[in-house]
From TrEMBL:
GO molecular function, one term: oxidoreductase activity
InterPro entries: NAD(P)-bd_dom_sf, Sc_DH/Rdtase_CS, SDR_fam
SUPFAM superfamilies, sorted: NAD(P)-binding Rossmann-fold domains
Protein name per the record: SDR family oxidoreductase
PROSITE patterns recorded: ADH_SHORT (PS00061)
Keywords annotated in UniProt: Oxidoreductase
Similarity comment text for this entry: Belongs to the short-chain dehydrogenases/reductases (SDR) family.
Gene3D superfamilies: NAD(P)-binding Rossmann-like Domain
Length: 248
């Protein structure tokens, strides 16, 4: 049987690309989604049609109880977990600091930061050799915005991803002796639908000339990096932040 993988926010974009690629490499994939069951179910059906094994599960990763219920379902379905990709994320409309209020900060950090903490905690409880598990791997989705700061656009999102960088390094050290590797991928300007939710669907084309490779990236290119960090080929990597940003 293939390794058991949970990908949060996997119905579209980078999460969906990661799920498709993981299935081709023999993983059994739980596709988590929040508000779009149709996309998640279509992805699951596509994976099954290709001979893979997948199941969709609705949960809001920002809700601690919802996350607990999702992991309980995973236990019932597959009896445990071998790998976690904390992909679920969101951003709000582009703006400057003066327009960022507490409610917006709460929303951005709840999904991008709290959700990764909640899911990683559940995963560690199942993977840790100190708790009877067999070990495993966690990959967090950060962003190159954590280094660049996203001035005038997404200061809050960049700060949230900076928190993910710190979380990745700290958790990696905390569980290294318990058979768990924890790394992060930091995508740059990737051609997905997230830019539309920020108010600029054409952002990739605008920003591409500032990227050393002179183009935006694809979700599939990010997925390749995620799958490498999950694999035994990255067996000596933990606490790493892998930039997939075209040189930015």
């Amino acid at each position: 049987m293939g390794k058991r993988l949970l990908i949060t926010g996997a119905g579209r974009g980078i999460g969906a690309a990661t799920a498709r690629l993981a299935a081709t490499r023999g993983y059994r994939v739980m596709v988590n989604y929040h508000r779009d069951p149709r996309s998640a179910e279509q992805l699951v059906q596509a994976i099954r049609a290709g001979g893979g094994e997948a199941v969709a599960w609705q949960a809001d990763v920002a809700d601690e109880r919802s996350v607990g219920a999702m992991f309980a379902e995973l236990d019932r379905h597959w009896g445990g977990l071998d790998a976690l990709v904390n992909n679920a994320g969101m951003l709000e409309q582009q703006c400057r600091l003066g327009q960022i209020d507490g409610a917006r900060l709460q929303r951005v950090f709840a999904t991008n930061v709290f959700g990764s903490f909640f899911c990683a905690r559940q995963a560690v409880q199942r993977m840790s050799t100190a708790l009877g598990g067999d070990g495993g791997a966690i990959v967090n989705l950060s962003s190159i915005a954590a280094s660049l700061g996203a001035p005038g656009e997404y200061l809050d999102y960049a700060a949230a991803k900076g928190a993910i960088d710190s979380f990745t390094r700290g958790l990696a050290k905390e569980v290294a002796a318990e058979g768990i590797r924890v790394n992060a991928v930091r995508p740059g300007v990737i051609d997905t639908g997230i830019h539309a939710s920020g108010g600029e669907p054409g952002r990739v084309a605008r920003v591409a000339p500032s990227v050393p490779l002179q183009r935006g990236g694809t979700a599939e290119e990010v997925a390749q990096a995620v799958l490498w960090l999950l694999s035994d080929e990255a067996s000596y990597c933990t606490g790493a932040l892998l930039d997939v940003s075209g040189g930015r």
